[in-house]
Prior knowledge:
Layout: H1 26-41, E1 46-48, E2 58-61, E3 69-80, E4 83-89, E5 92-101, E6 104-110, E7 116-122, H2 123-135, E8 145-148, H3 151-157
Antiparallel strand pairs: 1-2, 2-3, 3-6, 4-5, 5-8, 6-7
Bound molecules: zinc ion.
The site of zinc ion has 5 residues, from helix 2.
Amino acid sequence: xxxxxxxxxxxxxxxxxxxxxxxxxxxxxxxxxxxxxxxxxxxxxxxxxxxxxxxxxxxxxxxxxxxxxxxxxxxxxxxxxxxxxxxxxxxxxxxxxxxxxxxxxxxxxxxxxxxxxxxxxxxxxxxxxxxxxxxxxxxxxxxxxxxxxxxxxxxxxx
Length: 158
Ligand code: ZN
């Protein structure tokens, strides 16, 4: 596995729409592994293709208690309720915003072997699923944030 470079806000790649993978090859599995290692190293809970400069619909997520989740060509098929809370992004370092997301999200995707599956997440996992899938369409959380946290609020979090 290898650590990948994480692109930050301002990079054109983060604003592009990603192509579907359709066929999960060894190259895609290697990409997922590298993304997972990169995410852990950066202490994030999710990472999407464009964040490492790859315009394909691939996402890795690991929230507390969720275990590792690999998503290829993920699509949100159901949402329920809503939650308003803090959100950050590895591509927007040292910032935080308040974003409304569904409380519960069901996603359909391919796994790392190309097999279709469904996954339902609540709370932080639902938030991560929405956030990462947005990345695949060039959407960053500040686009949807009610507001960004102030310097004072960020300092209090540390
Ligand atoms: Zn992000």
